[in-house]
Amino acid sequence: MARKALTTVLAVLGGGVLVPLLVVHRHDIGAALALLVTVCPAWLSVAALAEAVSYLTRGGALRAVLRGAAPTVGTAALAAITVVGDAVAYVLPFGFAAGGAVAVGQTHRRGAPRAAAVWGFAVVTLVGMAVLVALGIVAAGVAVVAAGPGALPSGPGLLAVAAVVVVVAAAVAVGRRRRARRDGQAQPRARWSAAARPPWFDVTARLRARWADLRVQPLPARAVGAAAVGMLLSWIADLSVLALAFVALGERPPWAGLVIAYCLGQAASALPFTPGGLAVVEGGLTATLVAFGGCPAGTLTAVLLYRLISHWAVVPAGGLVWLALRRRATDEFRAAPRSAFPEGAERCPTRT
Prior knowledge:
Elements lengths: L1 H23 L1 H10 L5 H26 L8 H15 L6 H14 L4 H34 L8 H29 L16 H15 L5 H28 L6 H14 L11 H12 L4 H17 L1 H22 L17
């Protein structure tokens, strides 16, 4: 009931944000969509290939973290699973939790322990966020050194960068403080007997057990470094899709603010107001790129083309990949020898 109420509230908030934006800017959006017919098919193909490279490098980052726990799960399989998870995340408000759950389930079915799968996706997500923040800070520093503080757009864009940095720093500080407090405290005694336990006690016990499983997962420094490199290459490949969207339309990308605008757009996509950050990301990207000198009409069209390739094309692609993974799991199950199953066990296809 609580989950249904939360979904309803998020849907109402998303509609309240999305509908006014679409109504106010309907003429600009219509003009930008009309310009999409001028796109160069060759450059469009290159942009689609760059997006595929972005997912492959994300799969490589996951592979680096899960290598010890799941040696049989390859980079291509992890990249395909990431596409499925993103497809789920892009169609729901605040859908990254649901997408992560789907990705973890698919990785577990490919042979990875569930705790290791959760740990791998959590580590890669945090490392990717850190790399994205570092990339934005470096781009802002380069812009300041090259053209002075006036090169940075003031107002909401600068506030968003500061907010991302503050949130990441606060999360690290709180995590360290809680860990130090936990290490300094003795093991708490049981306060309830088995018969007098409240209904939520078993849930918290399971969560604590899951957390204990995650804490013992190995995380070598080499794996973290490889994950950071993989996520950096993934962000760069996805950023190149945005640049290629301008080139495919015959427009000149505003290079001075391209990286900063991209980092802000990725941060905005995590906001749970609309599915996949629809209208929020497009509006923020366009406003930031125009502030750095981009042509308003061409910039909006390029941003829409970028979002079509990197976000909305992922939804049908994720559905097709999910069907392929399901079929492959079923074929592998049927091909397994009967001796691999306990006597009397029912042989049924894996459900997803």
